[in-house]
Amino acid sequence: MGSAEIVVTVGGLVLCSVIAWFFWFAPKEATRAAALGEVQEVDVVVKGGYTPDVIVVQHSKPVRLNFLRQETSACSETVILGDFGKSAFLPPGQIVSIEFTPEKPGEYDFHCQMNMLRGKLVVE
Amino acid sequence: MPRLEDALRRLPGILSAEVSLGQGEVRVEYVPSLADLALVRRTIEAESGYRTTSAPTELSPDAEREAHAHEYRTLFNRFLFAAIIAIPVLLSSYPQFVPVLRDLPRGTLRLIWFVDALLTLPVLLYSGQRFFVGAWRALEHRAADMNTLIAVGTGAAWIYSVAAISVPRIFPPGTEEPFFDVVAVVIALVLLGQALELRARGRTSEAIKKLIGLQPRTARVIREGREQDIPVEEMLVGDLVLVRPGEKVPVDGIVADGASAVDQSMLTGEPIPVEKHPGDEVIGATINTTGAFRFRATKVGKDTALAQIVRMVQQAQASKAPIQRIADVVSGYFVPAMLIVAVLTFVAWFDFGPQPRLVYALVTAVSVLVIACPCALGLATPISLMVGVGKAAEFGVLIRNGAALQAARDVDTVVLDKTGTITIGKPVLTNVVATGAHDENGVLRLAAAVEKGSEHPLGAAIVQGARERELSIPSAENFVALPGRGVEARVEGRRVALGNRAMLDERQLAPGELEAVATRLADEGKTPMYVVVDERVTGLVAVADAVKPDSVAAIRGLKTLGVQVVMITGDNRRTADAIGHAVGIDRVLAEVLPAEKALQVRRLQAEGRKVAMVGDGINDAPALAQADVGMAIGTGTDVAIEASDITLITGSLRGVVTAIEISRATMHNITQNLFGSFIYNTLGVPIAAGMLYPFVGLLLSPMIAGAAMAASSVTVVTNANRLRGWKPRDVR
User: Fold this and answer.
1) Which H helix or E strand runs over B216?
2) pLDDT given at position B669
3) CA–CA gap between residue B554 and residue B254 (Å, rounded)
4) Does any CB of chain B come closer than 8 Å to the CB of residue A92?
5) Strand B25-30 to B14-20 pairing
6) In the prediction, which pLDDT does B730 show?
7) CA B162/CA B171 separation, integer angstroms
8) Nearest Cα residue to B425 out of B417, B433, B436
9) Are residues B143 and A77, on separate chains, in Cβ contact within 8 Å?
């Protein structure tokens, strides 16, 4: 094995570790929902992902998520909150609100139709 | 929220306002001619921070269509641009096959390649912009998606190519040729795939769009004696609504006067118009045929049957079938895993591959990135579920969620409640037999007179039967109920008794020739009652709960599906067996108390059966909940029956057949899609990585990989769309 092979092999393995760490193991930051009046309201921007993608709310209080899709790619056109039986079509550039009241604490997913864009709703 | 309530009450024309946070509702009583609903809306939004929405749904089919049309144009233009550029780039990449280019000196070729580099730059930046922007945004979320794969793949190919033609010295001999063709062709193919997929996807939500489109916009309401056209959103419970021939029924209600036949096929799938008379229920969005009638609105806004149906279908379409869980887990790790596979492929080819190994390493790594398709995997289940649930709704079958759909596929035993499910649920007079001096009408007249005082449903059937024969029913006095035996009263100076065999025995009367008739009628599942006038048996009347017209056909249909059909009833064994025999059911559970139905379902489950229970949703709620699939027979406008997994709007047993058939068809489609996309990725990725190369010398060009990737997600959506053409096998 020549030096080129060693460099490529070691480089490749390092790159693999970086990929694994970056996408799977690095900690993600959570955004806490702003409690507004009696409704816990969060604005979520949809643009290649959900910003914020971890939303913390309190249980037994109504939650409103205002989705604003800032892209036209059809991938993100539908947002689904399967655990709450909610889904919405998001026309680009329009705010679409989804309202529901999470009764039980726990972690719930929200995602696009293909499950490529994902976000997490943490109910405390 | 007292502040909001106060603010609303101060508005003109508002009588009262009550906020219910749990339901997300404000109930406002108002005087229609005085109140301004737009103002009410604005006030709610300003005071509460809540947003108001229009019933029945926020989803506008037009918005989706417009967004899709716009996106399709964008995709197609970008595809066209990339495709046009791809042609010259492709030709110059294989000069050995092109007559004029073949003979050009190497120096001139290099110049052409520089032109290729410049040509493909706008392909990357314009046509492929979405991949790079998308990949970057995903990266910001510490996520990776399809965009990441395409961006890294085409980006790497372009950068390598530019380096190869700019400083060929640093590359080993034979590796200095560019891959600009890969960049242009892959981007063009993936865009084409997305455009085709988008077009196919628009069709998947057709069913729900059709449902939403059924909602009429205005209603002709009679308020304060005046007819006025108002938007349906402003209709109130209690409004008197006029429906003329050919018009749509705007909301749900009860017919007050007039009569007509109403076409309910759009909601129930039932093709024959249904007769409506005063007291009958009409459903919003159905179409009046030739008569005119007025009805009293009972459900408006989000409570109408149509709004409930739309909501249920949308919720079901957003839900997950349990089978999807595996795809979810896989797609969560898929893209980063593919990036790692691509890196390892590069390393393996570089270390162990043939010369020029750098070229092989790059080509295989790019192929891996391009061929891996998370879209097909992610779309496989939801897209079929969407089409299947929508299709079911077209035939009056409302499936609550993906789990119910999956459970319905596995059903091997269907338990049918007798009363109201197999039968109409309302006894009618079936036979009158007279002996001696009386004729049939005379016997029936007396029997009806006695039963007029009774509250028993069998009695009501006799009275109704006499009325239908237009007999004048005399009045009765001294009415006495004989518990477990019958009833007795004085009619026109005679003592008339009506009852069963036990009553005759008690009075030591012989039924004579009528005994054989009574036995025969009982064997047919009917309830015979002897008529005794002045202590002489003079005839008998029989009533029965008639079997619904299509129950027999539906039960036959279930058997064709290979499902065992079981009838459950509180009736005595003899009647139950008779009805079971008449409709073709072999296994009859008779004399079951209402409270025991759930237990019986559990017993069947203990036999290892997957049980669907079909009942009315109210009395049978525990049994519906116990069953693997609870199917509630719809009762007019009550659609969202809590205990049920599936609601059959028609009230016909054919719905059960349809539900099982569509569930099987949809799950079959989902399985095909999941299987297909798993196979595609598990075969495609290793082949692209060159695993077959050592054995058969097979290597995929990244362009073939791009075509395969584009085809895979289009295939999944197209396959799901095949369900749109689904029809119940037994369609009338």
Assistant:
1) none
2) 94
3) 30
4) yes
5) antiparallel
6) 60
7) 12
8) B417
9) no
State how far residue B141 is from chain A, nearest Cα, in angstroms: 6
Mutate to test the interface with A, among B20, B347, B642 (most CBs of A within 10 A): B347
Residue showing tokens 């100076």: B493
Angle of the B325-352 helix axis to the B146-166 helix axis, nearest 10: 20
**What ipTM was predicted for this assembly?**
0.82
| Cα B238 to Cα B278, B280, B294, B632, distances in angstroms | 15, 15, 12, 28
**Structure tokens given for A64:** 């409103």
Residues of B in contact with A20 (CB under 8 A): 336, 340
Q: Does A122 touch chain B (CB under 8 A)?
A: no
What does the pLDDT read at residue B600?
92
Could you say which residues of chain B have pLDDT below 50? 55-59, 731-732
Q: Is B585 helix (H, G, I), strand (E, B) or coil?
A: coil
Contacts of A76 in chain B (CB under 8 A): none
With beta carbons under 8 A apart, name residues in chain A contacting B320: 82
CA dist B438 and A4 (Å) reads 114
pLDDT tens-place string over residues A76-116: 888 888 788 788 888 888 888 888 888 888 888 888 877 77
Residue B339's pLDDT is 93
Residue whose pair of structure tokens reads 């349906």 in the numeric block: B232
Residue of A nearest to B63 (CA): A91
Top residue of B5, B339, B373 to mutate, by most chain A CBs within 10 Å, is B339
Which residue among A72, A82, A117 sits closest to B318, beta carbon to beta carbon?
A82
Chain A and chain B share a number of CB contacts under 8 A equal to: 152
Q: Tell me which residue of B664, B637, B665, B663 sits closest to B651, measured CA to CA.
A: B637
Report percent pLDDT > 90 for chain A. Answer: 10
Task: Check B328 against A37: CB less than 8 A apart.
Answer: no
Produce one character per residue of B140-165: b if its CB has 16 or more CB atoms within 10 Å, e if not: ebbbbbbbbbbbbbbbbbbebbbebb
Q: What are the chain B neighbours of A19 within 8 Å (beta carbons)?
A: 336, 339-340, 343
Sheet of B476-482, strands arranged across = B423-434, B536-547, B527-533, B494-499, B486-491, B476-482
Helix (H) or strand (E) holding B560: helix B551-560
Nearest to A12 among B50, B70, B344 (CB): B344
Tokens of B241: 């609504």
Burial environment of residue B249 by CB neighbours within 10 A (0 to 12, 13 to 18, 19 or more): buried
Q: Which residues of A touch B382 (CB under 8 A)?
A: 80, 113-115
Entry pTM: 0.80
Distance CA B280, CA B285 (A): 16
Q: Check A73 against B382: CB less than 8 A apart.
A: no
d(CA B114, CA B118): 6
What percentage of chain B carries pLDDT values higher than 70? Answer: 95
Residue with structure tokens 């996106």?
Answer: B71
Measure the CA–CA gap between B668 and B405, rounded to whole angstroms. 11
CB A92 to CB B339 under 8 A? no
pLDDT score, position B56: 40
Just list the catalytic residues of B: 417
CB count in 10 Å sphere of residue B562: 8
The span from the CA of B289 to the CA of B271, in Å, is 13
pLDDT given at position A62: 84
Contacts of B444 (CB under 8 A, 6+ apart): B429, B432, B462, B465, B466, B469, B471, B541
Q: What's the rounded Cα separation, in Å, for the pair B462 and B544?
A: 10
Residue whose entry in the numeric block shows the structure tokens 């990357």: B124
Q: Which residue has the higher pLDDT, B32 or A8?
A: A8
- Chain A stretch 9-68, residues whose beta carbon is closer than 8 A to a beta carbon of chain B: 9, 12-13, 15-16, 19-20, 22-24, 26, 28, 36-39, 41, 47-51, 53, 62, 64
